[in-house]
Structures
1.
Amino acid sequence: MTSISEYPSRTDELRDRLQRVRNRIQAAGRPAGADEPHLIVVTKYFPASDVDILAGLGVRDVGENKDQEAAAKAADLAHLDLDWHFIGQLQSNKAKSVVRYAASVHSVDRRSLVTALGKAMAAEQRRRESEGLAARGDLSCFLQVDLRGDAARAADPGRGGAQPEDLPLLAEAVAGTPGLLLSGVMAVAPLGADAGDAFARLRELSAQLQAQHPGALSISAGMSSDLEAAVAHGATHLRIGSDVLGPRPPVR
Ligand SMILES: *Cc1c(COP(=O)(O)O)cnc(C)c1O
């Protein structure tokens, strides 16, 4: 990072930024009876040394969106008690790698990926057994929903997320796959849309999912710019990057 910092050290900076985000989460109005959401700190593009500092500041949940980067950091920091959350678009051929370190995948958006994750989990448990390692826990799966309208989708069909009408079958697929645990839903508020409207819709979809799958209680929603709206609409998991770590370095 070449930006000039007003902080004496990176640890001071991360402590201060993290505290501000925690204060915002506490100050945001929650629905009646809702617990405080889990904070996942999104560390993509930032070095493992920052994750190490964050762990020292009490962070237990970190989010990454690229397998190669995440796998390297998780290996570097294997001595720390961290849960790694995979939040980016995931190619099926990366499933095998992701299940070696990830506690959850927030971007489950198609049947073929569910199949790949199920196979990868089975292979991973066999690997652990053959190497005398303890079995890992089930992989928590969040169904990522595309909340954009038809027009935006037609203009840019390549983006991640299942269509809302495809959620029931996708949920059945996850629930019926050994090694996978259906946690709930995930979404990113569409660009230019009102985040509150988007997260209200996500909460409705979560309620529909829970009617069929009572254990699928989780709602992963909310980034740096819209965490208050997410908390107000019942988010259980927030994915916060830049407000904790600072502006991301330009993509190389
Ligand atoms: C990068 C990213 C985030 C964090 O975004 P910030 O605006 O930096 O807080 C959250 N969710 C997803 C899916 C991301 O890719």
2.
Amino acid sequence: MSTIRQKRPWKLPEGHATPESCYLDRREILRRLGLASIGLALSPATACSRLDPLAPPRGLMDPALGKRFSELFPAERNQIYDLGPRPLTPEEPTASFNNFYEFSHHKGEVWQLAKGFPVDPWTIQVAGLVQHPRTIDLDEIFHVAPLEERLYRFRCVERWAMQVPWTGYPLSYLIDALKPLSSARYVRFVSVSDPRRMPGLKIPHYPWPYYEALRLDEAMNELAFVAVGIYGHGLPMQNGAPWRIVCPWKYGYKSPKSIVRIEFTAEPPPTFWNDLAPTEYGFFSNVDPRKPHPRWSQKIEEDIGTLEKRPTLLYNGYQNQVASLYDGSEI
Ligand SMILES: Nc1nc2c(c(=O)[nH]1)N[C@H]1C(S)=C(S)[C@@H](COP(=O)(O)O)O[C@H]1N2
Ligand SMILES: [Mo]
């Protein structure tokens, strides 16, 4: 008898239901926005402008923190980070098409299930190889550095992509403030998990809570970002309130949401998707059109705002900023 265990359906990792469910959810979103029949025929610019007169569903884009910290928004845009020829994605698709498995595997319903999730007070444990292990709160997170807005490309391993204005500050500022020891080589993040409010956690055999990590030199790169806001206001829960990481040159799962623990380590920490399917999700997971995912090519991506299909860019177009971090052996 074979001792090799079959991969169980619930072990199927991110994107197991795509592209079908991806497209279905997106069509549903577009239908709600009144674009279903015309979306594909319109040019990107026209498609976006057609969104303006339509009222989005109530509560879709509400900042989870309400008015708290609203005096910090909108932050000044840092013009260095532009999107090239790509248009900014309208707020509605970004807020209604989400991967946040703790709430649901269905991208279109995450925002509804996430509504009302309590984010205040919120404590973050700082642990591991750090001068002062301690607990910090949102006042500290929001005031590590002046907030700025950055337009970043964002690419999910499932091949959908968007262009988003994040508000926050470089992750390097937070790391400096936390004073890791010189022996620290990696930084690890753990997301919130509340089984009473997150129905997705009931699906067995996922190793919750969600955990991700970066090598410290990656985390110190100018692009790695602490996001506390989006589209000029605080984050809605579905996008990772009250704060998250955004790493725009890596596949989206390297950008953990709703973080409650930061830990510094000497050894590479395990990561959620890599533990579930090591042959499909590497530790580094840099966006790379030349490296196909075992179940699909990564050459092409699709914009959730315009539905345009276009070639995937190496490092999601950020090679000038990040190529020097790598020697080509990273997976
Ligand atoms: N805690 C947590 N963080 C997460 C995820 C998740 O399921 N749980 N999904 C990741 C994936 S796969 C992607 S593509 C992005 C999606 O971010 P968005 O919904 O804000 O677009 O969040 C990432 N961060
Ligand atoms: Mo993703």
